[in-house]
């Protein structure tokens, strides 16, 4: 027997509330938006990420000039790591997050509503969201090996 054509397929994504979001007290608001959109929380953990974890997490950016300041920023305080689940959640959370640059991210998005440019070497844009199924699987295994 095959699934009905419109049967939802479950997908998971890794969301990080970055240290700027945690520091500014926006973790709850960001999690609220994920839940309000209709996605399910699978795991939530406040933690301090070490350099090895972040080097792996940002492996695709190896060699880029912003990598060192980015890792330093991500180590400047705790991050809230979240696994969210739902049909098309990877694309859905990227849409909730908005464009990388919070100055031009659309109003209505997390970065557009809550972020701005602080004139620093790293773009502090409140959240990370996996950008593909492959990245999501890799990142969830990295942050939540028990899942
Ligand atoms: N970043 C930065 N300068 C850049 C590009 C990226 O500081 O020129 C930072 C920013 O915090 C971004 C992260 O590096 O969120 C990862 O970059 P990516 O291109 O994957 O953006 P995202 O998927 O987070 O929108």
TrEMBL record:
PROSITE patterns: NDPK, NDPK_LIKE. ATP binds at residues 18, 66, 94, 100, 111, 125. It is found in: Cytoplasm. It catalyses: a ribonucleoside 5'-diphosphate + ATP = a ribonucleoside 5'-triphosphate + ADP; a 2'-deoxyribonucleoside 5'-diphosphate + ATP = a 2'-deoxyribonucleoside 5'-triphosphate + ADP. Its cofactor is Mg(2+). Its EC number is 2.7.4.6. The keyword Secreted does not apply. SMART domains: NDK. The active site is at residue 128. Major role in the synthesis of nucleoside triphosphates other than ATP. The ATP gamma phosphate is transferred to the NDP beta phosphate via a ping-pong mechanism, using a phosphorylated active-site intermediate. NCBIfam families: PRK00668.1 (NF001908). This is Nucleoside diphosphate kinase. It comes from Cellulomonas xylanilytica. The gene is ndk.
């Amino acid at each position: 027997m095959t699934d009905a054509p419109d049967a939802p397929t479950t997908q998971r994504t890794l969301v990080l509330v970055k240290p700027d979001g945690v520091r500014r007290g926006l973790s709850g608001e960001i999690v609220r938006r994920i839940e309000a959109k209709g996605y399910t929380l699978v795991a939530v953990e406040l933690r301090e990420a070490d350099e090895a974890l972040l080097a792996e997490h940002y492996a695709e950016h190896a060699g880029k000039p912003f990598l060192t300041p980015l890792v330093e920023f991500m180590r400047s305080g705790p991050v809230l790591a979240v696994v969210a689940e739902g049909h098309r959640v990877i694309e859905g959370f990227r849409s909730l997050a908005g464009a990388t640059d919070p100055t031009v991210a659309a109003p209505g998005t997390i970065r557009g509503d809550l972020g701005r440019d602080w004139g620093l070497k790293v773009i502090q844009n409140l959240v990370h969201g996996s950008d593909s199924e492959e990245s999501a699987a890799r990142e969830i295994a990295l942050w939540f090996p028990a899942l």
